Amino acid sequence: RPPGFSQSRRIPNRVGFGPAVAELVRQGHGVFVEVSAHPVLVQPLSEISDDAVVTGSLRRDDGGLRRLLTSMAELFVRGVPLDWTAVLPETGRVDLPKYAFDHRHYWLRPAESATDAASLGQAAADHPLLGAVVELPQSDGLVFTSRLSVRTHPWLADHAVGGVVLLPGSGLAELAVRAGDEAGCTALDELVIEAPLVVPAQGAVRVQVALSGPDETGSRTVDIYSQRDGGSWTRHATGVLSSAAAEDSGFDFHAWPPADAERVDVETFYTDLAERGYGYGPAFQGLRAVWRRDGDVFAEVALPEDLRKDAGRFGVHPALLDAALQAATVGGGDEPGEPVLAFAWNGLVLHAAGASALRVRLSPSGPDALSVEAADETGGLVLTMESLVSRPVSAEQLGAAGGAGHDALFRVDWTELPAVPGAVLPPWVRVDTADDVVALAEKADTPPVVVLEAAGADALAMTSRVLEVVQAWLAASAFEDSRLVVTTRGAVPAGGDDTLTDRAAAAVWGLVRSAQAEHPDRIVLLDTDGELSLAAVLASGEPQLAVRGTTLHVPRLARATRLADSPAAFGPDGTVLVSGAGSLGTLVARHLVTRHGVRKLVLASRRGPDAAGAAELVAELTDAEVSVVACDVADRDQVAALVADLPDLTGVVHTAGVFEDGVIDALTPEQLANVYAAKVDAVRHLDELTRDRDLGAFVVFSSVAGVMGGGGQGPYAAANAFLDAAMAHRRAAGLPGLSLAWGLWERSSGMAAHLSEIDHARASRNGVLELTRAEGLELFDRALRIDESLLVPIKLDLAAMRSGPVGVLFRGLVRPSRAQARSVSTVDIGLAGRLAGLAPADREELLVDLVRGQVAVVLGYDGPEAVRPDTAFKDTGFDSLTSVELRNRLREAAGLKLPATLVFDYPNPLAVARYLGARLVPESNGHNGHGGNGHGGPRPVPAAVAVEDEERSIADLGVDDLVQLAFGDE
């Protein structure tokens, strides 16, 4: 920029964009790339030269590397040479596979099409934004339904405010007017917009327009709602419709443009709007000319050519009416500030429908209000409106409306569960140690219920003891038909005024929840405040319960929507300590400075200034005093020294952590200790050493694994459950404390960097979706305004959850499907029954297909065709966790109890299929149902391992040995 350049000087001066581009084209330049957050100039460039290659760099809500590479590819296919090696490094050659390529079809995805409304007992709404209309016989009301998306209505993507795609207020008015037309109410007396209607970048949003029956004057109320998939309904607008006649002001639109009106330059209008947060694409750049006279604004607006063909299906196209209202902001001299959105529409009457261009008159009608008149290109009256009131909208309001905040932030409720009458207590035995379990397993008759009481002051010692007992119990085949009940006291706050009193026992809940995920229906968690109520607990069928008095409570997720009227948790005063300099720690540190205005921040980690990205972060955040210090927060002395150096400490955010994966059978106390140091010890030190400080916030990042359990995440789940309990303990003491039990972050965030493609596929299959960084930060901000000690930020696909067994926590969000009634002829005879009537070859083929299908699901393949029957599991990416998942899925499909070592004993799909065949149809293997492995099947595939100069079969090995044998020393 030249000396003395300023943005304010540029605004009133002409840019001369068109002539400059034309001169470049004349000189032979034919490729134009608009480098911006969203293309605004692409269409004008294309109009200047038909032969030029024109593209943008990024797009709204799509500003990552993939979008940039796509833009480069668009240039490449248009003949623009690119040096791809600068982007994609050269790779080595790979050998061809030793088998023929599989040929597969990849069909083009068909466009979504509307279902015939009449076939569903509805009437077609005959409107581009509405699908069907239903009459309500009890009230004479009407309900209109629709689904909106940027795929079905691409022009909506061109209306973004603050980076969020919104249905414009003119679209809400159009919906209300269309509803009124159906009932003979031609005047929209009032429409108040309560919340912006966000159109998601992915997927669709359901829309309902509810029109009441007429009152004594014939008027009807109208309400407009939306609902995202799996979310709750939000009302966006409410209003009144009537059949009142509109008054004509008598303004003559035939004499155009108006005499004595002064023309206003609009050449840079849309670039100026973009700087103010309005991301208007070509569909909403319809303003052609503007004039001013005596406070009135006159304008010409028109739809782009590609939208004109559908204009006749609208009352007035939302993009056209929005462009008409944009004229009010031209040449007003307003300083850039918060974007302004329409808030209240009053006295709107549509005189003619289907216009593709308008002549517009806007006149002041009150503070922040305008009256609107519009005519077509011949001067015929199209629309009149008595008053339109607008209000500014903040970035926080847009973020709350557009992000995951409403539908992705949950609290844990403890719901009262009716007791099953007449419950009978089965025989049970109490154990305290793993040795007790081993001794009990050697007895002739094992009890159907085994009870372990988890009590003790030290979290690591207690969870280590529970781990040993659970491992011994799972390893003993004598307990295959028994249930283990792990009891605690005060480990969970079971609703109301109930408080959590035992943080160490809470860690046990996290560990055992992970064991439950790996071994469904075998373990029960019970927190009690008195004597055991085993009969009622076991009869409930619930795997996790709390007993308070004689009442049973079960945990359920519920949306956290009630915002507290409390002071800001973070601000410019004092110092904020962020522990952990990983991806999430630096992300939060940057957010605290740029969004919350923190001016003194200390980022603590073991590596201190040597941590990756630390120097860059300090250099970036010049608006604050940012220090990066070396401190192991698991070391109490180091934490004490750090806190002593921060006399003005006002906030703590703990993001550090260590992940140790492994199935419950193979975990060691050392793995627990490793995770506890970074999580449990660190938070305990920070908690105890800051209790004398006047903190405004104490936030810890935990994981949903501690709340819902996660297969292969025992130590991580236990440590995070302790963090959740620690924050509840702080709250009970009158101190600030908030634990955020995060769901799945996108892989680049750092918190999910350790997860594989298989892990992400498993999460998606179970209905857990990835949170983007922007969504995560939005949820962080929203959580700070909710009065809870534990919140669960997690993005859910409830439709996916409905397709399988619903987890404990989600039973309040997902309605279970009703069981199907069966007749004698349709009773499911089970897999064994289906196999019994088949020839041996057909039987094996069916079982192989079953196993291949389940393997494909576990590994995230598109279908079983990608699974070869003779390929070893260890060669297809199986680990201990995927082995457990496959065992559980096959157990469900076959109706059999299967050993935890199934994948190790039978190392490929064909071997597993033959094992299942021998179990389901014993004579098929010639063993009469009795093998030597204790499971009524054939012996495992033979193998030998040298241990102390002796050979042992695979069936004799422990889980640790099996993991090493199957997957190598690494």
Largest sheet: 14 strands, antiparallel
The span between the termini is: 56 Å
Helical content (DSSP H or I, runs of 4+): 25-40%
CATH topology of the domain at 413-555: Rossmann fold
Reported CATH architecture of the domain at 413-555: 3-Layer(aba) Sandwich
Regarding CATH, which class of the domain at 413-555?
Alpha Beta
User: What is the number of strand segments?
Assistant: 38
Give the uncertain stretches in residue-range form: 1-13, 92-100, 823-827, 926-936, 941-957, 962-970
Rg estimate, integer Å: 33 Å
> How much strand content do the residues show?
15-25%
Counting DSSP H or I runs of 4 or more residues, the number of helices is 28
Q: Average pLDDT, to the nearest integer? A: 84
> What would the principal axes of the Cα set say about the shape?
globular
Please list the strands of the largest sheet in the order they lie side by side.
3-4-5-10-11-12-8-17-20-19-18-16-15-13
What is the SS-derived class?
A: alpha/beta
Give the topology.
Layout: H1 7-10, H2 17-26, E1 31-34, H3 42-48, E2 53-56, H4 65-77, E3 123-127, E4 130-136, E5 141-148, E6 159-161, E7 164-167, H5 169-183, E8 187-193, E9 197-198, E10 205-211, E11 220-228, E12 233-242, E13 262-264, H6 269-275, E14 278-280, E15 287-293, E16 296-302, H7 305-308, H8 318-326, E17 340-350, E18 357-366, E19 369-375, E20 381-392, H9 395-402, E21 409-417, E22 428-431, H10 434-441, E23 449-453, H11 459-475, E24 483-488, H12 503-518, E25 523-528, H13 534-540, E26 544-548, E27 551-559, E28 575-579, H14 583-594, E29 600-605, H15 614-620, E30 625-630, H16 636-644, E31 649-654, H17 669-689, E32 697-703, H18 705-708, H19 714-732, E33 738-742, H20 757-765, E34 768-769, H21 773-783, E35 790-793, E36 795-796, H22 798-802, H23 830-836, H24 840-859, H25 880-894, H26 902-905, H27 909-920, E37 945-947, E38 950-952, H28 959-967
Parallel strand pairs: 1-2, 22-23, 23-24, 24-25, 25-26, 28-29, 28-31, 29-30, 31-32, 32-33, 33-35
Antiparallel strand pairs: 3-4, 4-5, 5-10, 6-7, 6-14, 7-9, 8-12, 8-17, 10-11, 11-12, 13-15, 15-16, 16-18, 17-20, 18-19, 19-20, 21-27, 21-35, 26-27, 34-36, 37-38
Helix pairs in contact: 5-8, 10-11, 11-12, 11-17, 12-19, 16-17, 17-19, 24-25, 24-27
